[in-house]
Amino acid sequence: MNDKETSKLDETTVPFFPDHIGLEAKVALVFGIFMIAIGIVGLINPLGLQSPADPMDTPVHVKPEWYFLALYQILKFIPKGVGASLPVILVGLIFIWPFLDHKPDKSRNTTRNRGIAMLVLMVVFILLTIWGELS
Amino acid sequence: MKYLPRRLILVGLCVLGFAVIIVTNNAQAISSPENNTLNWGLVNLLTSNQAKTISKLHTSTLPPPAKQDPCLHCHIAGEEKGLWTPTLRWAIFGTVGIIFVFGIVRESTIWRTRAPWKSLITRTSEWIDERYEISNPLNKILSKPVPQWQRRWWYCLGGLTAFAFVIQGITGIMLAFYYKPTPEAAYTSIIFIENEVYLGSTIRMIHHWSANFMIVLCIAHMLRVFIMGAFKPPRELNWVSGVLLFIVTLAFGFTGYLLPWDQRAYWATTVGTEIAGSLPIIGDPALILLRVGWNISDLTLSRFYGLHVIVIPAITLVMMGLHFMMVRKQGIMKPL
């Protein structure tokens, strides 16, 4: 089993320069062309602005940036102090994660479990973001 | 006199060239009129009518203009007034001239060094290498073998994040040339960028979307690393620096969002800083630190601008340098 898995990896090498850097340049080029296409869209249809900032006039739907939207949505339902410290604790946990989970384990099971956990986290995050965007 | 030294040929060519230039210029200079006896010092004192009559008098008494000399330039250029003929002529003569100059330079370098000819790039790189000896370590870095299994798209996510950061840097500098970080001018300067600056709306669009993609790519890269278990020893510090880079990227987004100073920006920042302000113990200090006071004001804008263009980019560059060096040293984790 293990031999099969390792033989799947292609161990033949290519030099970093120019072969590998060429591949990376191609990927970057595709991304760059994509960005230029977006720029052309911006030329035709600019991003635009809302009305100037006015502290006296609160809009009906106040929303943060999309990457804070899920957190904002959670904050609507749980006490503020807990909700605000939630991401701090989460980021702290992610920060020290390699020191908690440090056993060299390369089995397929743990990889799958981590994948499922992240998938669930991402689905929850995306659903909360969509909910926050719609509400 | 076995052979004519090349130096003499060169000097002779230069003298010949100068002679041609001088002769042709003199031929044109002779044709200018020389019968001007008007006292220009008096002209300033005259009224406009007097000046007109005097100038008429003078022009009438002047001898007829000298017969136009056959000018060499006109002869070459002909009477053609179109665009393409002179352009083509310039291109052909220019190319020939460049080849000629190149030949002379090349010949003269052989004559001077008596060494086989080397391109300017080779010479420059040798000059630098003589002094700083970087070619060996550089070759070592560049010729590092990369296994085929590493050439997969999911290993590109981190590099693409870095590339998005480079795009952000370039477009951000372009925007910073026109942006004014004061509440009075911020909004109008964005409108100026959108409507007046050449390709301004393009640059702003790219900056906006590249920022969003950078966050998405950053999250995707983190997920890839986490699921594959690449954070395990000995790569703990690389993961830590990566998490710091992620926080810094979010900080980029958070500070940049306020800068347009429109309703969306203002209220998004209000909400965002409120979340930070509702932290249990450090809430109030954090709120005051972010807003510079209890409310979002002009000071908040300058603080966010300073963070966005100076502090956070500097931190990002340092962390990225560490991140890349660690990856380079330890290599990508081999899956399974």
Description:
- The complex is a heterodimer of chains A (135) and B (336).
- With 135 residues, chain A is mainly α.
- Chain A folds into two domains: 1-48; 59-135, Helix Hairpins, CATH 1.10.287.
- Chain A is built from five helices and one strand, in the order αβαααα.
- Chain A has helices at 2-8, 16-44, 66-75, 80-100, 108-134; one strand at 13-15.
- Chain A is flat, with a radius of gyration of 23 Å.
- The model of chain A is unreliable at 1-5 (pLDDT under 50).
- Chain B has 336 residues and is mainly α.
- Chain B has a domain at 158-330: Cytochrome Bc1 Complex, Chain C, CATH 1.20.810.10.
- Helix content of chain B is 72%, strand content 1%.
- Chain B contains 14 helices and one strand.
- The mean pLDDT of chain B is 85.
CATH architecture grouping of the largest domain in chain A: Orthogonal Bundle
Helix and strand element order of chain A: HEHHHH
Fraction of residues in H or I helices of chain B: over 70%
- Indicate the structural class of chain A: mainly alpha
Total number of helical segments of chain B? 14
* Oligomer description: heterodimer
* Beta-strand content bin of chain A: under 5%
Globular, elongated, flat, extended or rod-shaped: what is the shape of chain B? flat
Tally of DSSP β-strands of chain A: 1
Radius of gyration of chain A: 23 Å
State the end-to-end CA separation of chain B. 80 Å
Largest interface: A-B, 76 and 76 residues
| Approximate strand percentage of chain B | under 5%
What's the count of strands of chain B?
Answer: 1
Mean pLDDT of chain B: 85
So, the CATH homologous superfamily of the domain at 158-330 in chain B? Cytochrome Bc1 Complex, Chain C
Order of helices and strands of chain B: HHHHHHHEHHHHHHH
